[in-house]
């Protein structure tokens, strides 16, 4: 259960101000059909994070505990630094996809936008750390939905009221703490 809760919280925070949250806003403004957009976000996230979680589980199975400790520690600290760098949304993320309808456009745009994104990398690291594939993927998917679905329904009213810079600083702090804990831990599974 800890893997689920930590995964949900980390991804929900990491998503604040992320390019996929901006993408949610753009899709909502462009199509004005919230349900197909939210469903598209969900489908793209399940597929993307399912694959990322599988990579994390594979890493956990094939890398020894000492190497895993260093990979996780350095990765979480790198993620803390990355959280402080603002994201930008390319117009191509939406424009090239519109021929597939609202749902198809959302699935394709979200899946592609998540490739190599902070939350995808976080999903890999969390699945490797907790060795709880299903709980991590469910948690990261819920975190994505908690961060993005309200943006689709409430649009820029919500985004303007949330202090994105502060959320990024808090997220960076959480990743930094996780990185330090991983580096100081003698046994990585003890973090779970």
Automatic annotation (TrEMBL):
The UniProt entry's GO CC annotations, sorted and at most eight, read: membrane
Q: Where are the transmembrane segments?
A: 37-61, 67-85, 97-113, 133-154, 166-184
Q: How does it sit in the membrane?
A: Multi-pass membrane protein
Q: Can you name one GO molecular function term for this protein?
A: metal ion transmembrane transporter activity
Going by the UniProt record, its keywords in alphabetical order are: Membrane, Transmembrane, Transmembrane helix
Record flagged with keyword Mitochondrion = no
**Chief location bin:** membrane
Give the family from UniProt.
Belongs to the GDT1 family.
Spell out the protein name for this chain.
GDT1 family protein
Q: Which organism is it from?
A: Comamonas kerstersii
């Amino acid at each position: 259960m800890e893997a689920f809760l930590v995964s949900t919280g980390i991804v929900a925070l990491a998503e604040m101000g992320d390019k996929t949250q901006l993408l949610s806003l753009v899709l909502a403004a462009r199509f004005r059909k919230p349900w197909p957009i939210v469903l598209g976000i969900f489908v793209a996230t399940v597929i993307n994070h399912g694959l990322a979680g599988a990579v994390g589980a594979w890493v956990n199975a094939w890398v020894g505990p000492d190497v895993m400790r260093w990979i996780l520690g350095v990765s979480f600290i790198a993620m803390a630094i990355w959280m402080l760098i603002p994201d930008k949304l390319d117009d191509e993320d939406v424009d090239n996809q519109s021929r597939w309808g609202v749902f198809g456009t959302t699935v394709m745009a979200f899946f592609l936008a998540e490739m190599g994104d902070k939350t995808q990398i976080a999903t890999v690291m969390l699945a490797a750390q907790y060795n709880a594939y299903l709980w991590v993927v469910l948690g990261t998917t819920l975190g994505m939905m908690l961060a993005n679905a309200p943006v689709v329904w409430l649009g820029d009213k919500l985004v303007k009221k949330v202090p994105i810079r502060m959320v990024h600083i808090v997220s960076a702090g959480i990743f930094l703490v996780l990185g330090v804990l991983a580096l100081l831990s003698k046994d990585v599974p003890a973090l779970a």
